[in-house]
């Protein structure tokens, strides 16, 4: 089933293989959501799973997000490990009540009697020219809720490893998938499935993608690509950017960021989510608290605007791109 | 007995098989089969039989008008698909097969009635007097609503499934509080009936006698999910549980849709509302241009529904009864060609909005933080003025790499 090691595989396919291997490894792992069965999901992330694991383990659900997540709660109480797909970012809100009121609080309320080993998969973010409600970045809402873990991935290997880690984690994980990266290929070594599980999962930590000395640039998920491209351009101009991929947005593994800022003295945070009261706001505040005397410039954020996601012909204005990242780097260096 | 059943269920579960039980098969059939209760005026063969409960004064002029509506709406719909294939639209949601369900309901509306569409109601938009090219902005990505929803009494398209049902109910509550001689109609699909919003809308409408017609176009599919995944009973029967009438109408029969919707709106205006209408029809095309129905649906099914085509039966009736001649059909076809040409031209000519649009109309009152954000961004853009320009519509990621 699994591909030979070190094949180049699209991110969506890596997720599919993550689901498949997890279902092979544990019969309690089930997949549920709208159109995940016969269709294989609108992005084909669940392609072929129903054919191979049957309708009892891959459930095509009625069209009701509150129903999907609420039912997943009950299944988790019964000992299953449900992986619920929300079709698009903008459709998680009908399920928000269940996520906030039940998923996030069940373990706390029952003093651990009912853990919530559940994954809520959400394709998120813009850049695919879609209609309204299909391009949002709602991760900050979930980071604000205690009891949830919030994870995202930016490449195929992380997609596979982090999804598996999320599935075998006993806490509920909201797993954001950068939909405009679904078709991007990257190296994937599926042998990682045989590594012993770790608590907390090692894959949930921040990772340095590129070492540098002048400015620290932090991002995650869909924005990693323009950030890495910006680091290339900056290098050509004699500027050395250190790039860190957060991977987990809650709980934030901020130590590598703080440590990096202590060396570079400058921090740019990049995310396409709106700026106000967001994950980027939290990063800026915490780095200021922890590394105030190392900072040579204020923390600068490159984010989505504080507007609804615009019509798609305007999304190139809304989404942080290479130029906006470089502009922020310039501003950080100007102090 | 119970233990046996449980053991059997467990065995089936362990084997990963899930054959439906006999009762499930029957329940599914009940939800998906056109039964005797269905209201029909014009048969697929073009035979007209008035219905005692849903009287309708039928004239040749009216029939010709409905036929023309359906032809023009279908033509724009096909053009929408083509424009998407040509890269002019990001997406199109086809209505093919649902022309009668939409034109019948749309033509039943009075001038002051309010309509809340979902995202596929291009035929209702036509009946509300909206130029079809106004629909294109949503699918081309130039704006979220290309018409004046207040003046046209046709709300913006709603993409979050079921949301609009509650909004329509509230609007109808207002109509009743105002003592207005008006009603509201809300459109949603068979899949939408699983959403809490739709259920809650019906509870509210019943609690306040809201003059709202719940108009469910059961096109048999919610993307890949057949209607029996949403319901074990015919959808119209659910109305009983809320305490108002439910009617199933042949959604491929424009006259039946018109007659039943007119009756339902009159019920609403008389203070008896709400009413649930299930228009039993079929989505002949893909869910949207991004969808591939061959992955989940049998070709036979579409073949069967082709025989029930909503336009064909009106055409046959008009010709057989001598109410329209070849010249009429030619004229309608020519009109469709003309409309299609202007629709295409409007699409290609549609400009991208200026970057200011990202920030406009987020609030109705001034908002200092956003004003500042806008000013900063426009100033940033202006910095590119003499270089290649950040507005070169490259991919969102790439930028220009050209420094300001
Ligand atoms: C709350 C929500 N969940 C999921 C979707 C994605 N989605 C768009 S259309 C659709 C199926 C809708 O089926 P139905 O209600 O029967 O209407 P139809 O498209 O067949 O007219 C789904 C699942 C959505 N738009 N909104």
Automatic annotation (TrEMBL), chain A:
CDD domains: TPP_PYR_E1-PDHc-beta_like (cd07036). Gene3D superfamilies: 3.40.50.920, 3.40.50.970. Residues 9-184 form the Transketolase-like pyrimidine-binding domain. It comes from the Bacteria. GO terms for molecular function: magnesium ion binding; oxidoreductase activity. Keywords: Oxidoreductase, Thiamine pyrophosphate. The keyword Ribosomal protein does not apply. Its cofactor is thiamine diphosphate. This is Alpha-ketoacid dehydrogenase subunit beta. The lineage of its organism: Bacteria, Bacillati, Actinomycetota, Actinomycetes, Nakamurellales.
Automatic annotation (TrEMBL), chain B:
Its cofactor is thiamine diphosphate. Residues 68-338 form the Dehydrogenase E1 component domain. InterPro entries: Alpha-ketoacid_DH_E1_comp, DH_E1, PdhA/BkdA, THDP-binding. CDD domains: TPP_E1_PDC_ADC_BCADC. Pfam families: E1_dh. Keywords: Oxidoreductase, Pyruvate, Thiamine pyrophosphate. GO terms for molecular function: magnesium ion binding; oxidoreductase activity, acting on the aldehyde or oxo group of donors, disulfide as acceptor. GO terms for biological process: branched-chain amino acid catabolic process. NCBIfam families: PDH_E1_alph_x. This is Pyruvate dehydrogenase (Acetyl-transferring) E1 component subunit alpha. It comes from Nakamurella flava.
């Amino acid at each position: 089933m699994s591909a030979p090691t070190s094949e180049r595989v699209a991110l969506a396919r890596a997720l599919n293989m993550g689901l498949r291997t997890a279902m092979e490894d544990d019969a309690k792992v089930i997949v549920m959501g709208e159109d995940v069965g016969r269709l294989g999901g609108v992005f084909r992330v669940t392609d072929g799973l129903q054919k191979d694991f049957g309708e009892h383990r891959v459930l095509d659900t009625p069209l009701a997000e509150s129903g999907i997540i609420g039912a997943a709660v009950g299944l988790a109480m019964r000992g299953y490990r449900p992986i619920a797909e929300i079709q698009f970012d903008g459709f998680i809100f009908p399920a928000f009540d269940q996520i906030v009121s039940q998923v996030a609080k069940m373990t706390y309320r029952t003093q651990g009697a009912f853990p919530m080993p559940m994954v809520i998969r959400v394709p998120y973010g813009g850049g695919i020219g879609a209609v309204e409600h299909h391009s949002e970045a709602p991760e900050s809402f979930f980071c604000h809720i205690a009891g949830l873990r919030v994870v995202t991935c930016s490449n195929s290997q992380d997609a596979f490893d982090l999804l598996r880690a999320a599935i075998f984690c006993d806490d509920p994980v909201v797993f954001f998938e950068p939909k405009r990266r679904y078709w991007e290929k990257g190296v994937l070594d599926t042998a990682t499935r045989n590594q012993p599980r770790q608590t907390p999962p090692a894959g949930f930590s921040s990772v340095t993608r590129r070492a540098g000395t002048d400015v620290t640039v932090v991002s995650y998920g869909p924005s990693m690509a323009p950030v890495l491209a910006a680091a290339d351009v900056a290098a050509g101009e004699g500027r050395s950017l250190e790039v860190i991929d957060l991977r987990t947005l809650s709980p934030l593994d901020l130590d590598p960021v703080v440590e990096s800022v202590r060396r570079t003295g400058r921090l740019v945070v990049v995310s396409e989510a709106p700026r106000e009261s967001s994950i980027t706001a939290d990063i800026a505040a915490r780095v200021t608290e922890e590394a105030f005397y190392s900072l040579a410039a204020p923390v600068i954020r490159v984010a989505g605007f504080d507007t609804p996601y615009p019509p798609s012909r305007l999304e190139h204005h809304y989404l942080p791109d290479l130029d906006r990242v470089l502009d922020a780097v310039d501003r950080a260096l100007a102090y | 007995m119970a233990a046996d059943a449980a053991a059997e269920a467990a065995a089936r579960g362990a084997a990963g098989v899930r054959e439906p039980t006999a009762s499930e098969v029957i329940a599914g059939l009940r939800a998906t089969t056109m039964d005797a209760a269905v209201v029909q005026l014009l048969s697929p063969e073009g035979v007209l039989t008035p219905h005692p409960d849903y009287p309708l004064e039928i004239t040749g002029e009216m029939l010709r008008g409905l036929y023309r509506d359906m032809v023009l709406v279908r033509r724009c719909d096909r053009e929408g698909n083509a424009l998407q294939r040509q890269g002019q639209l990001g997406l199109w949601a086809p209505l093919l097969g649902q022309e009668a369900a939409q034109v019948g309901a749309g033509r039943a509306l009075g001038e002051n009635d309010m309509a809340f569409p979902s995202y596929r109601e291009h035929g209702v938009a036509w009946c509300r007097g909206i130029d079809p090219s106004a629909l294109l902005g949503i699918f081309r990505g130039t704006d979220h609503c290309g018409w004046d929803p207040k003046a046209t009494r046709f709300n913006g398209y709603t993409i979050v499934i079921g949301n609009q049902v509650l909004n329509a109910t509230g609007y109808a509550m207002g109509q009743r509080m105002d003592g207005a001689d008006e009603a509201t109609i809300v459109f949603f699909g068979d899949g939408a009936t699983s959403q809490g919003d739709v259920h809650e809308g019906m509870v509210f409408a019943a609690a306040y006698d809201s003059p709202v017609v719940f108009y469910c176009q059961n096109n048999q599919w919610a993307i890949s999910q057949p209607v029996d995944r949403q319901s074990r009973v015919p959808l119209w029967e659910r109305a009983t549980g809320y305490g108002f009438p439910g009617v199933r109408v042949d959604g491929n029969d424009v006259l039946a849709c018109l007659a039943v919707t007119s009756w339902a709106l009159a019920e609403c205006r008389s203070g008896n509302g709400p009413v649930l209408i299930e228009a039993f029809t079929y989505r002949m095309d893909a869910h949207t241009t991004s969808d591939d129905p061959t992955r989940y649906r049998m070709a036979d099914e579409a073949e069967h529904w082709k025989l029930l085509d909503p336009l064909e039966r009106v055409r046959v009736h008009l010709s057989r009864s001598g109410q329209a001649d070849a010249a009429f059909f030619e004229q309608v076809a020519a009109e469709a060609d003309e409309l299609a040409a202007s629709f295409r031209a409007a699409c290609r000519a549609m400009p991208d909005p200026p970057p200011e649009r990202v920030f406009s109309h987020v609030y109705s009152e001034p908002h200092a933080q956003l004003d500042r954000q806008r000013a900063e961004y426009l100033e940033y853009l202006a910095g590119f003025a003499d270089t290649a320009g950040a507005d070169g519509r490259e991919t969102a990621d790439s930028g220009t790499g050209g420094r300001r």
